[in-house]
Amino acid sequence: MKKLLLILIVLAVQAESWGQVRDSARLWASRGYFNKSLDELRQIPEDSLTIEDMRLFYDNFVQLGQYDSLAYWGDKILKQDPYDVSLIVDFTPRLNKGWQGDVGKKSYPSKVIDICQKYRERDSTHILVNRQLAEAFYNIGNYDLALPALKQLEAVGDTCFGTLYTLGLTYQRMGDNSTAYDYLSRATTINNDANPYCLFTLGIVCNRIGFGAEALSYLDMAKERMMPDRRTLFRLHQELSDAFGKKGEYDFRLEELQECMKLADEKDVNELTYQMGQCYFQLKQRDKAKECFNKFLEATENKEYNDKIKSMRRSAEQTLRMMMW
Predict the structure, then answer these.
(1) Which pLDDT score is estimated for 302?
(2) Is 164 within 8 Å of 183 (Cβ atoms)?
(3) Is residue 222 a contact partner of residue 206, using CB atoms and an 8 Å limit?
(4) Contact 120, 156 (CB under 8 A)
(5) Cβ(166)–Cβ(146) under 8 Å?
(6) Residue 100: beta bridge partners?
(7) 194 — phi, psi (to 5°)?
(8) DSSP labels, 106-174
């Protein structure tokens, strides 16, 4: 009897202790300290974890972008409660979209189908669950199952962009370009022509059904939206030029700087001119190096600049003197 009482006391103390750990884990997570929250949760033995503990594990890994770990905890939760709809509607879109792994990006539509079909044994009318099921059927290429699932969504009033877009894609894959055109047109209209892939597919479909002028319009819009903006392209070429510079490949660095110059704002021109001068000097093209350095010095003479420009001026002047020897 005493031994049983002692065991009950120990269990009660442990339960109170785990309660404090859980409170601490929730507090850390609420303040954005997700790794600290995980450290707290890991103190609880696995056989003492509740569904709520597992969900906090899952939510922390979501916030940290650690997809394999969130999938591990998502699976554990659904093994205990396959009807946890709040988890399902968060977990299945991630599985459908997939994530980057060691061997490239991978998605898990077959797992989505298993999860959603199990849930539908209890409730077959949940729109968010049915959306992911239809998406998964499309993702595995089973258009014969995707189409009725999508049409069922449409029948109950789900005409959001995603449903209309996937319907259009499904009809296109099944060779019905006319119906695909109808759905893709509706999808891009309600999305204000914002999705380049919808526009691109719509352009392809227009070509297939003989709407040449409309195809050109949609394809031009798709190209425009897929093209990075000028400042993004500038940053891309700028980073490439820095990378080639660090490798000592000045010919490639120079090419990237020339691309930068085509995209540059006025405030960037002087620094680019100096950097091009450096490249020409390293490539032993001294006439071009002198031209760049002199142009840079002339543009920045008697003007208030930051310490970086002042340092560049000193370096340019020193290099010009070296080339005179």
Answers:
(1) 80
(2) yes
(3) no
(4) no
(5) yes
(6) 105
(7) -90, -25
(8) E--HHHHHHHHHHHHTT-S--HHHHHHHHHHHHHTT-HHHHHHHHHHHHHTT---HHHHHHHHHHHHHT
Map 252-309 to HEC letters.
Answer: HHHHHHHHHHHHCCHHHHHHHHHHHHHHHHHCCCHHHHHHHHHHHHHHHCCCCCCHHH
Whether the Cβ atoms of residue 218 and residue 195 lie closer than 8 Å to each other: no
User: What does 18-75 look like in DSSP terms, one character per residue?
Assistant: HHHHHHHHHHHHHTT-HHHHHHHHTTS-GGG--HHHHHHHHHHHHHHT-HHHHHHHHH
Q: What is the pLDDT of residue 304?
A: 64
Residue with tokens 């490539």: 283
Contact (Cβ atoms closer than 8 angstroms) between residue 119 and residue 112 = no
Whether 229 shows a pLDDT value over 50: the answer reads yes
Taking all residues of the chain, what is their mean pLDDT, rounded to a whole number? Answer: 92
The tokens for 39 are 């450290």
Contacts of 41 by beta carbon, 8 Å cutoff, 6+ apart? 21, 22, 25, 49, 53, 56, 57, 60
Q: Which pair of tokens denotes residue 269?
A: 């021109």
Please write the tens of the pLDDT for every residue from 103-140: 678 999 999 999 999 999 999 999 999 999 999 999 99
- Residue 204: pLDDT above 50? yes
Burial class (CB in 10 A: 0-12, 13-18, 19+), 227: exposed
pTM to 2 decimal places? 0.78
Q: Residue 11: pLDDT band by 50, 70, 90 thresholds? A: very low
